[in-house]
Amino acid sequence: MSVQQLSSYVCGEWKTGSGKTASLKNPTTEEVIAEASTGGIDMAAALAYAREQGMPALQELTFAQRGQLLMAASKALHKYRDELLELSTTSGGNTRGDAKFDVDGATGTLAFYAKLGERLGEARFLMHGEGVQLSRSPRYWGEHMLVPRRGVAVHVNAFNFPAWGTAEKAACALLAGMPVVSKPATATSILAWRMTQILVEEKVFPAGAFSLVCGSAGDLLDHLGCFDVLAFTGSSDTAAKLRGGPGVLQRGARINVEADSLNAAVLGRDVEPGSDTFDLFVREVVRDMTQKAGQKCTAIRRIFVPQDLLEAAREGLVEELSAQRTGDPTQRGVKVGPLASESQLRDVRGGVERLKGCAKAVHGDGSRGELTGIDHDKGYFMSPVLFEASDARAEAVHAHEVFGPVATILPYSGDPAEAAELVGLGQGGLVASIYSDDFDVASGVALGMAPYSGRVNLGSAKVAEQSLGPGAVLPQLIHGGPGRAGGGEELGGLRGLGFYMQRTALQGYKPVLEKIAKLGHPSV
Ligand code: NAP
User: Fold this and answer.
1) pLDDT digit string (tens) for 348-362?
2) N or C: lower Cβ tally within 10 Å for the chain?
3) Which residue lies with its CA nearest to atom 20 of ligand 1?
């Protein structure tokens, strides 16, 4: 494969950066597949173009028309599905299943928001909640509305979902009426770059509605203005830097952060080994450890098991993990591909060594392990590692996210309140699951861990057949979590538009307000 030069699509043109380039490698072979640089690209002009061209073009459209753009984007990308899946494997080490998770997740989310746009119809803004009488006279009235912000949405994404991450953020922003400047993580950016090429070639969006910065962000974020927004997905360390930038701190640009998360799964004390619920628990924990080689922000990292079910849980998980082959992601039957980059492998190895200080490995050891279809010593491979700690409060387990195929079993008494409290030691997460068929156990754990979690997944025999598991982020439900997870909120159907819109209160003469309200979409 020749080395592709990745350019950025800004100001309505493809621009190739100069100076220092970053190399993108195939994580299976370590072969360089592309180079990216943003040196010399005028980021201030990129944002200005989006505000001046893209924003008015989008904001004059109705929700239904914006929805049509999203549907066109979904269809255009779907047309190139096979090529995108292949690129996802070459550039991100994804198995075909993992590649579909990202690429089909992207087109599916665009189509979901397209349909939402159709439902919102001819309006250009949303009314919010019930109106309220403000004085003794019923004439003096109050309402709330959501109008598109007068700025640009900058999206900075993580390496693990270059397709879905780009699309899920763009879908909400574009439907709300804000133009997008999207910056994928450099290591896997070739997929987002190719998607943008397709959208440009197919002339899907009006000029300035969608731009791509491929490579380092440079000084992009220094030019955020007061009505712009920044949606970030990545590590807490980067998030902390971005929160302190001048656009956010001094000019009041809005920021949403999706960051680290030590997601939890709790096995209820009522669950019998071999039952449907037990099998669901085993299946979903192992899927989360192995899908995308564990590089999923929602992947289960901490597995809480009642003391007297420890042996059965360990055996079940080890047996299922032993059936998952690690190796060449293009090979049938391989479930775990390589990690996405060398630095990713280094970080995960470091995390495994840290966990070895407080837990024993009951499956895997942090090495490449036995690899299927690999006859060289290249590639960023690590076979899954399952730890077990005797101390459920071991600090390293709750404090550091190991972003790879790694999780730890932790014992608890079986008391729902204790399980919830232990989940809270993770300092806030994206998703936590309880597996139980007993209402008191399920509701006790679910309600207890809800304040620490953006989403709570209740696994039981009744949903074992349908369960999508905690790892899948659905456009219908909110994605985000408190504390360490960043405190952000994305998706959740219409809720996802809120970040890109200004909630404005109106007060005045009721008949006038009612007439204004009729121009918007009725209460959401
Ligand atoms: P990262 O190193 O923080 O990078 C994330 C993004 O930030 C990349 O696009 C990166 O660009 C950019 N970036 C880094 N420094 C920057 C700066 N000073 N100014 C502007 N942009 C900057 O994270 P990652 O390694 O890609 O992703 C792994 C982390 O993401 C994990 O901790 C995981 O938990 C988290 N994650 C969270 C979610 C969620 O939804 N909550 C989803 C996925 C991943 P370059 O690549 O060019 O450096």
Assistant:
1) 999 999 999 999 999
2) N
3) 217
pLDDT in tens, 356-393: 999 999 999 999 999 999 999 999 999 999 999 999 99
Supply the DSSP string of 265-332, one letter for each residue: EEE-TTPPTTSHHHHHHHHHHHHHHHGGGG--TT-EEEEEEEGGGHHHHHHHHHHHHHTPEEE-TTST
Report which protein residue has its CA nearest ligand 1's atom 35.
Answer: 234
CATH number for 263-475 (one of 3.40.309.10, 3.40.50.300, 3.30.565.10, 1.10.3720.10): it is 3.40.309.10
Is any ligand 1 atom within 6 A of the Cβ of residue 403? Answer: yes
Residues tagged active-site: 258, 297
Q: Which atom of ligand 1 is nearest to the CA of 189?
A: 46
Instruction: Using DSSP, state whether 146 is helix, strand or coil.
Output: strand
159 CA to centre of ligand 1 in angstroms: 7
pLDDT in tens, 298-325: 999 999 999 999 999 999 999 999 999 9
Nearest to 214 by CA among 16, 31, 53, 80: 16
Is 297 a pocket residue for ligand 1 (Cβ < 6 Å)?
yes
E strand or H helix that includes residue 385: strand 385-388
* Contacts with 392 (C-beta within 8 Å, 6 or more apart), sequence order: 304, 410, 411, 412, 422
Indicate the domain borders of the chain. Answer: 45-259+487-519, 263-475
Tell the residue number behind the tokens 């042996």, with chain if given.
Answer: 311
